[in-house]
Amino acid sequence: MRGVRWLVVLLVLWGPCVGERAQAETLVADLSSELVAITSNFTGTELILFGALERDPLEVLGAIARPGQQGATGRQERGDVVVVVRGPIEDVAVRRKGRIGLLWLNRDKLSFSNVPSFYFMATTRPLEQIAPQSLVQRQQLGMHNLDFEAGADTLFSPETVTLFREALVRNKENAGLYQENIGGVRFSGNTLFRTTLPIPANVPVGNYNAEVYLIRNGFIVSAQSWPFFVAKTGLERWLYRIAHGYPLLYGVGATVLALMAGGAASLVLRRRI
Amino acid sequence: MQIYLPIAEMSVNILIILGMGAAVGFLSGMFGIAGGFLLTPLLIFAGIPPAVAVATQVNQTVASSVTGVVAHWRRKAVDFQMGSILVAGGSVGALVGILIFKSVQKSGQTDLFISLSYVVLLGGVGLMMLRESVRVIQRARKGARPKDRQSGQHLWIHGLPLKMRFRRSKLYISVLGPLAISFVVGILVTTLGVGGGFIMVPAMIYILRMPTNIVIGTSLFQIIFVTAIATVLHAVSTKSVDAVLAALLIVGGVVGAHWGAQMGQRLRAEELRALLGILVLLVAIRLSFDLVTLPNDLYSIQSVLHEDQP
User: Fold this and answer.
1) For chain A, how long is the longest CA-to-CA vector?
2) Which of B41, B257, B267, B306 is most buried by its number of CB atoms within 10 A?
3) Per the structure, how many domains does chain B have?
4) Where is pLDDT greater, at B263 or B40?
């Protein structure tokens, strides 16, 4: 398995050299899998994103010829890698509890749209050392820089909207659906990098996108994205589809099964109540 | 050992769910109750979304009441005529209940509604059970015999029109009484995921004055039909019936009920009822605790996915 993966990396590295002439600053990457299958024993999983910086062959040859300088300037030349994964977009209602008499109950509500149901970011170094604030905000890097749209009909002050926005991120983070891993992108040597993408057990199903940015001197010099899918499979998928596509059939089926199970139990046990 | 619940969309420990089903099944076997009013709060404590807990519990109750009714049927301890009237009232109640549940869901107060209803319901039932059994135990200590059913007395409910003769129950009463009672219980079935036997049985004995020996069988008979209808209603309108969760609860419940029934025969009825009363009160206290203490996070989120799943 591992051998195959590295073979793929090598092929990917080698490929462009044969075809068009490689640019000095591009990256190639791939995911260990394009499908996360949710089966009955699904407890979360990990995807591996691995890639390589493609460098000008002449530059590489130069570096080999002058090995002493490589260590000192390696990082500057190489740049930093930021990996971002986003799940399907959703609307989220954020509710705030308030006290009425003795009871705590939901009182205020603010809806946000354009919220990624899942967000993960891994970087080689802390963001502030990699990119200026303007770039971070423009690319919405990091869970605290995501730009959700608050419901247009809101009567709340901007400060209150910020509180709700922060609460959304906090709740997502506590549920394990928003994660960051600073330093999670590791280089082996100067060109190969890899990172693991954590997929928790409560991951929403749908279309995902993994984006990889190569940032050098505060600019994005190369970016690519790879889609992958999270889907229920087997019995889980089948049940979910029937429950949502043919709810009447599902309800009758669940009832009949319960009737049969109850009858079978009484035959087996001959309960006396 | 984890298992993924396709409708709840979460992964749970299979042994915890089986254990909960068995524990409540044990109690139901011991006390002769369906146990939905204990299992639904337990499922919510375990992190199952309240809507899924209620809808799935209704489905589980179908199975447990079928198991229970067979024995009564053999003894001919079921009044099918009365049962049918109760099914009619209960079905309409279940339909009204699902409308209430949907509107509560829309307003975002599902958790509060379910917790508060359970606190009121369990608190009331627990206190009543405890008081009743303490009184019986005290009377038994003094050596007096408990009073028999006062069949000569009439309540206002017996003066209503549309009278009908119920042969098996030896009653000649208005159908409006049973219809009203089963209507109210039907609402509880779809909103709270209970079978409703713990309300239906006392109501049949004390309000309708049915003979005690056919009350439980008749109650179970009507619960089968009303919970069956309620399962379909929930599947169609809230889409929250989790068949995998229901199957686990049914399996656990059957095993637990078997042991519970054997255990129940060794304990005395009044002591059993006092135990159950204490248990029910504990669940009510635990639920009310969550309502009045400062929550960990004042904010909560609820997602609405845009695209349909593949």
Assistant:
1) 89
2) B257
3) 1
4) B40
